[in-house]
Structures are given as structure tokens and as C-alpha cells.
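Troubleshooting entry. The earlier prediction with phenylalanine gave an output that would not parse, so I re-checked the input for stray whitespace and re-submitted. Clean input:
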Amino acid sequence: LRDTLLAAISAATAPDALDAVRVEALGKQGRITGLLKTLGGMTPDERQVQGPAIHALREAVTTAIAARKAALDAAVLNARLAAETLDMTLPVDLPATGTVHPVSQVMDELAEIFADLGFAVATGPEIETDWHNFSALNIPETHPARAMHDTFYLAGMPADGDERTVKRVLRTHTSPVQIRTMMDQPPPIRIIAPGRTYRSDSDATHTPMFHQVEGLVIDKGITLGHLKWTLETFLKAFFEREDIVLRLRPSYFPFTEPSAEIDVGYTLVKGKRVIGGSGDDENGGWLEVLGSGMVHPKVIAACGLDPAEWQGFAFGCGIDRLAMLKYGMDDLRAFFDGDIRWLKHYGFAS
Ligand code: PHE
């Protein structure tokens, strides 16, 4: 019996086969259990001989089963380890994560550059009153400049009431933040105001929603020289080049006097316009990047300040256009399509 059982134990190649042998030998109806039961019917002399023998048999079988079980468990574990190898050298498949949009990135860069020049960031509402967007900026109701702005007017506003609160528009530029800042805080003022602006216009270089950054300085003894130096310093830092050349072109805005459009020189490199160098050079040209001027005395007065005491300059600039120039993008509409392939192409998504 001992040999039969030990052979069965070593022949068991799976845990349940081994368990069947265990039941057969040591279970309630098992063969060794049966032998143990015969001890009671033996004479003391027989028991003296058979007892230790049967117990030794049980001991041997129990030990053999435990040993075989340990071996089988180890084999199962080894098989799993072999099957489930983990290659630690494989690249990790990271989940897709969001990145900063080029427009947000440029806004952050602007805030950083101007912070170094002592400018704070100011904000204003995108739903603006007609008064802040136009009238306070010296653009009265009948002014032809209004027609140039392709304004979105908001419906459902009462026809009468205070002009300053009643008629509402989606702001057509960030210039109303000039008004809000001058009315909110005493000079000296140095702010930029980046944000969304709206005009009813759409083609490769115009979207109904776009972004501008406004700049405003109000202090004593401010001149056009301060304006030029500030913009030159800003554009050098933004385009990361020292060879930035500016051209101030006389222009007209109702809220600045005198007014100047700022052109920046570019150089053609393999057919692409790269900011830098004089636009008058052989391979060069000029790109209009900013509107600017000395804040009109009427605007300063509309905000409750004395224009004889306070002067300043202001400028406004399209953020999306700045991003296009810096990163070499050519269709403004793609900025707002949310196409991950476009973002990846320009290195703004991974
Ligand atoms: N608000 C003007 C525009 O949208 C730009 C500008 C701002 C011009 C400030 C002069 C001063 O075109």
C-alpha cells in the first residue's frame, strides 16, 4: 500500500490529482483511515506491532503529499512567472495630456515680458457697454469709425436709459479696458490687458472672435519716445532677436493723438517672412503689428482725469497675429478649430 500511494503521489501532476490521492488515503473513507479503524479490533499484541506501522505509513504519506504539493505549487508559480514576463525596457504608453494653446502661450509670454517692465495685467468684460467700447474713446454715435468695427450688438436691451449702462456690444477691441482702468485706479498707470475681442468678419486672417492685447501708460511727462522704446523692448523680447527694426507710420485712431501704426521689419528666408532686420533691405519688407498713439486728452477727461496734468500712451495689437508671426502659422482660423494634428504640427501637443 505504501508503495502504491507514494507512486500515486509522485505521479500526480496537478493540485487536484494530488488532492484525490489525499482523499483516497487519508479521507474519512480513505485506505489508511480504514487501517487505523482496524486497530480497535486487534489484540494488544497485534496492536503493539501494527499501531506504529500504520502511524508510520500515515506519517510518510502525509509528508509525501505536502512535499509534492509544495513542488506542484512552485511549478505553477514558475509557469506563471515565465508566461507573465514584464519587459521593463518597453517605452511607457503615456495617456494623452492637454498642453497650452498657442494663444494662451503668447498671452503668458506677454504678461511676463511686460511684468519685467513694471506693467500689471488688467481685465474687462467681453460684453461691454457701447459707452466704454466707443463713446468714452472719442467715437460718438455718428462717428464713421464705428462702421469700421463690424460690431455685434446685443439685442433685448431697453431703448432708453443711461447711455453708460444700457446699450451693449461684444467688445470690438480691448481699448475699453483703458477706460475702466483709468476710472478705477489713480495714476500713475502701467497695464496691459490681453483678452478676447469680437467683430463680424471671417477669412484666412480674420475670425469673428480673436485676441488683442492693450497697453496703457498714464503718468506725468510721457512722450512718444517712451512709447517707441517700450514697444521696441517688448518686440525684441517677444521675437527673441536684437535686430528688430520699427517704423512708426502716421495713422488715425479717434482715441489717440498723434496716432502711429507700428510696422516691424522682416526678412525673407526661403520664401518665409522672418521678423528681424530693416524692411528696407533688399530681401525685406514691413509688417503692420500694432496700433498706437498718445492717449487723446478727451479720453483722459472722459475718465475724470485732468489732461493738463496727466499724459500717456496706448497701444493695441492682435495676439493671434503675433503668434502666427512667431510660430510661422498661416491660417488664423486653424487656431480655433481644435484640430490636434494642427497643434502637434506646430509643437503645441505631444
Ligand atoms: N483699438 C485699436 C484697434 O483695435 C488699436 C489701438 C489701441 C490703437 C490703442 C491705438 C491705441 O484697432
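This one parsed fine. The mean pLDDT is 90.
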